[in-house]
Amino acid sequence: DELCQLRASGHRCILFGRPSGREACSFFDTDNAAGAAMAVNQLAGCGWSHIAYCDQHDQQWYHQDRRRGWRRALKERGLPHDDTLLINTAANFSEAHQAVLQHLSAHPEIDAILIQGGAHTAATLYALRDLGRKPGIDIGIIMYDDDPDMAAQQRPALSAIAQRFDETAAEAAAMLLDDLAADAPPIRERIVQPSLVIRGSCGG
Predict the structure, then answer these.
(1) Greatest alpha-carbon span in the chain
(2) pLDDT by residue (tens digit) across 123-177?
């Protein structure tokens, strides 16, 4: 694959995210499972009990990590964690909107949602509007990847998991410079902890 070709040609590489194959390579990443658990614990602390996770059905490492962290946190709190709380959507807005709308209509007990982000966030907010449900009042919402401008445009403002990309990018650059200065750099990994930005959409 491309990674093997780069390494075979003598290039130094730092990956964002874990390598998917068996080829050893230094990488940095955010702790996606921890971020999802933070969101669940915040929503549960606000009094919500049926906390869904909305994302695109995908086998990328970060999707898997977030689903694992979400489900583990629910189990640890003794909250429902079955698949009726997993909202699988498409990547585009219109299909995601219909998927969320249909799922919430079929499972009205869902009272909080952790959203993957991007089109999923917009689709979920539109579906809630269609159903007459208000974030922060009768359903708790936290989105992945903090976007302060987007969050502030909503009423109430959206709570979010921040992945601190500025910190991870700076550390990746430092790791790469260290590797370039070494004859035989070691394989390293750096996991950065995300943070929770609490705004009005959590409710409670």
Answers:
(1) 62
(2) 999 999 999 999 999 999 999 888 777 777 788 999 999 986 676 677 777 777 7
Element (H, E) at 25: none
- Each residue's pLDDT tens digit, 70-122: 999 999 999 999 999 999 888 789 999 999 999 999 999 999 999 987 788 89
8 Å CB contact between 101 and 130: yes
Rounded to 5°, angle at Cα 36 from 39 and 166 = 95
Closest CA to 163 of 28, 41, 19, 43: 28
Strand pairing class (195-197; 159-162) = antiparallel
Helical spans, DSSP H, in 46-118: 61-76, 93-106
**How far is residue 99's CA from residue 13's CA, in Å, rounded to a whole number?**
39
| Euclidean distance between CA atoms 145 and 55, whole angstroms | 13
Q: Which residue has the tokens 């869904």?
A: 52
Residue with tokens 């290039």: 11
> Which of 123, 117, 156 minimizes the C-alpha distance to 138?
156
Reference 36, options 75, 72, 61; nearest CA is 72
